[in-house]
Amino acid sequence: MQTSRLISKEAFRGSGIGVIFMAFFGTLWAGIGVMGLQGWGFPYVELAAIFVGIIMVIGGISLIHASQKMSNQVSENGARRLKRIGFWFNMVFIAEALLIGAAIAICNMIDQTDLIPGVIAIIVGIHFLPLASLFQIRIYYATGVLLCLLALVTLFIVPATVMFGEHQIIAPLSILGFGCALILWTTGLSLWLSVKNSKGLFVSHIHDEDHQC
Predict the structure, then answer these.
(1) SS3 call for 27
(2) According to the per-residue pLDDT averaged within each range, which of 9-23, 66-80, 123-137 is highest?
(3) Measured in whole angstroms, how far is the alpha carbon of residue 188 from the centre of its chain?
(4) Which uninterrupted H or E stretch holds 147?
(5) Cα distances (Å, whole numbers) of residue 30 to 79, 97, 131, 157
């Protein structure tokens, strides 16, 4: 029973933080998409993106609030497992930040700043793959792959500009920005509903490890 409560508490809290991250970064990517529109749809597109972000933040906060009402008891083995998860999460996050910084510096050095959004999207996509294994959240695999594929399409296939009626749009920025936003928002929404409905997309193997001890 202590293990089950631990899983629920950590799942709700961790997933709530995850949903907030998806909301925040999804909205940032939507901002990049808005830049590509070059004024088309202003201010309705911007307001819609902000609205979606706010709704998802509220969902994330609701999960964190629910976790605070749960038992804080934890077995020794479960505590060690959670500590390992926290350590490797930090390592993945640091590696992602360093790679993004290096990518931006290299693109600036070779005067290819237009590649920066696509390269960042690829790095962000790759970082979801170890997180999927770490947290046992399968949807993260799909998130990572989709982000990488979208970035590659915008880098090598999408034309630089597209005419939308009489308005010129920077197609790679718009497609990449709104595409990444949609992927992250969908991931956050799926995570939110999954945990809220106790579908169990979270660190379930803690239970197995505790039974083995």
Answers:
(1) helix
(2) 123-137
(3) 7
(4) helix 139-156
(5) 38, 20, 23, 20
Write the CB contacts of 7 (distance below 8 Å, at least 6 apart in sequence). 202, 203, 204, 206, 207
Please report, for residues 20, 84, 104, 106, the alpha-carbon distance to residue 112 in angstroms, rounded to integers and kept in the order given: 32, 39, 9, 8
Tokens encoding 163: 């005419």
Quick one: which H or E segment has residue 202?
A: none
Cα dist. 52→25, 105, 114, 157, 184 in Å? 12, 32, 27, 29, 11
Q: Express each pLDDT in 148-160 by its tens digit.
A: 999 999 999 999 8
Q: How many domains does the chain have?
A: 1
Beta strands in the chain (DSSP E): 162-164, 167-169
Domain span at residue 178 reads 2-212
pTM over 0.90: no
**Start-end of H helices in 110-138:** 116-135
| Cis ω before 130 (30° cut-off from 0) | no
List the one residue out of 120, 124, 122, 90 whose CA is nearest residue 105.
Answer: 120
